[in-house]
Write a structure and sequence with these properties.
This protein is mainly alpha-helical and 158 residues long. It contains ten helices and no strands. The longest helix has 26 residues. The protein is elongated and about 80 Å long. It starts with a helix and ends with a helix.
């Protein structure tokens, strides 16, 4: 900061702007370093947050509220964990390689696979239980994540 201040107050020449921009870039690189370092040094706290996140998702997928409220959003989960959505996604990406949204979808697909194999509910009924207004939306998500339609997945177990 002192270098930026000194350059700002010095007489202007052809390199003044480039030097100030370079010093600001260096400052931002240090900020990024310290921001990302916390994910390495706080592994225990991050693992505890991951356990809490899994509990929130399990609770969401096992409740009747899912039909009315739909899937939990990243904002909903971040609020329950008392974190910002961006921080939560950064932390998860460091631990699991996935964003919070990807994590939500993966848990949904796991639960859907379980229901497709263990129940006789139609794909539309399963979609409705997960809060999807239109079964086609569920179908597209399932196919995008598994490369199989829900019916193809179910038939592969019969």
């Amino acid at each position: 900061m002192q270098g930026i201040h000194k350059e700002y107050n010095a007489s202007i020449d052809n390199f003044s702007q480039d030097i100030i921009v370079s010093q600001i870039e260096l400052l931002l690189n240090y900020c990024n370093r310290f921001y990302h370092r916390q994910f390495i040094t706080r592994k225990t706290a991050s693992n505890e947050l991951l356990i809490k996140l899994e509990a929130i998702l399990a609770n969401s997928f096992n409740s009747e509220k899912l039909q009315q409220a739909g899937l939990p959003t990243v904002q909903d989960i971040a609020d329950q964990l008392h974190l910002s959505p961006n921080y939560l996604s950064d932390m998860l990406r460091t631990l699991t390689g996935q964003s919070t949204q990807q994590h939500i979808y993966n848990r949904l697909i796991e639960k859907a696979k379980e229901m497709l194999v263990s129940t006789n509910l139609s794909v539309g009924e399963i979609a409705f239980q997960f809060g999807f207004e239109y079964p086609q939306s569920f179908h597209k998500l399932f196919k995008r994540k598994t490369n199989l339609s829900p019916l193809e997945y179910r038939q592969s177990f019969n």
